[in-house]
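Protocol step 4 of 6: structure prediction from sequence.
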Amino acid sequence: MAIKNEPPNKQTLNYLLKRAVAEVISEDELTRLLKSGKTLRIKEGLDPSAPDIHLGHMVTLRKMRQFQDLGHQIVIIVGDWTAQIGDPSGSSATRPMLSAEQVKENAETYLKQFFKIVDKNKTEVRFQSEWFGKFDLADVVRLTSKFTVAQLLAREDFSKRFNDQKPIAITELLYPLMQAYDSVAIQADVELGGTDQKFNFLVGRELQAMMGQRSQQIFMVPLLVGTDGVQKMSKSLGNYIGIAEPPEIIYGKTMSIRDDYIMTYFELLTDVPEEELEEFKKQMDSGVNPMTLKKRLAREVLGQLYREKEAKAAEEHFEKTVQKKEVPDDISEYAIQHEITLSQLLAQSGLAASRSEAVRLINQGAVTVDNEKKSDANEIVSKGVIIKVGKRRYLKTI
C-alpha cells in the first residue's frame, strides 16, 4: 500500500513544475497527483553505453532529488538489454554494442556519480534484463503489434533518415517500444528526462493505456548547452563539464562558458532564488564583469558535488593559475626514465588522452614548456621543466 505524503505547498509545487522545466504532459494531471499525497513512481532511464555524467545530466538529477524530497520514489532503469544490442546499422556512434561486463562496469561508474546528487537510499535500481531476459519471440511480436511503422517513423530522426534514404535497422524501431515497455514493467507514474526523449515518452504513455495501466505523466527538462555555447552538452563533442572531474577542472570549465549562458546555467543548475537571479540579470545589463557571476556559479555547482573546502581550493587555484598566471604549488610530477618526445610525454602522463590528441594540442599552440609555446610534437623533453596544457593543466618533469 502506497504511503501518503504531505502534499506540497503552492511555493514548492511552483518551483518543482516551473523552474528548469521545459514541458509537462499533463501539468494539470501531475499537479492533481502531487496534491493527492500518493507516492509516485518517477522513472528515468540510464544509458550505460557511456560511464560518465556531465552537468547536462545534472539538470534531470536535481529534479529527481526534488521529487525525492517530497517523498516520491525514484526508479532508475539501467538499459543493459538495449546496450548489448547496440546499433547494428552502424549509424549511431553513441549506441555501440557492449558486452555484459562493459554494461556492468559503466552502470557502476554511472550510478556512483548519479548518487552525488540523488539520494541512494531512496532510489530503486532496476535492470531491463529483469523482464526482457524472459521475452521470447511471441512476446516481441505481441509488443510490435501495438504500433505501426508509420507511427514510429513520425519520430524526427527516423523520419529524416527515411526521407534521406539512409538505412534504419528494424532493431532501432524497437528501441522506443522497449523503453515504453520499461514504463509498463515498473508501473511508472511519471517519466523524467530531456526534451529529446519526448517521442519515446509519449509511446510509453500510449502503451501503458493499451496495457490497462494509468498513463504516465511526462516531465521534460531543457537540454543544457555545452561550453561551446552552440550544441547541447556532450562528451563526444568535447563541450562538457563532468561531475566526477576534479574540482579545479569543473571550476575552470564553468568559468569558460559563454557570457550569454550564465543565467541559463544558474536557472538549470542551482537553487539561487528567482529574486536574486533577477538582480543578476540587472547586473549583466548594467555591464558588471561576467567573471564575478561566473565565480558565484562555479561555487554553487561545486557546492553540490564537493565539500566547501574543496570548492574554495578550486577557486584559489583558478585565481592563481589563470588570473594571476602563476604556477600552482601542488603541481604534479612525472619521472622521465628515458628519452621521450613532447607528444609521447603528454599522452603517457595523462595530459592528453592519446598521442593524436597531444599532437593536435601542440599544433593548436595549447602547449608550453617553461612558458615557451611549442609547435614540434617530436621535440625531446628534458628533466626539470614545467609543461602547461591549456589554461589549467600543469606537469613538472623530474
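Step 5 (inspection) to follow. The chain is about 45% helix and 10% strand.
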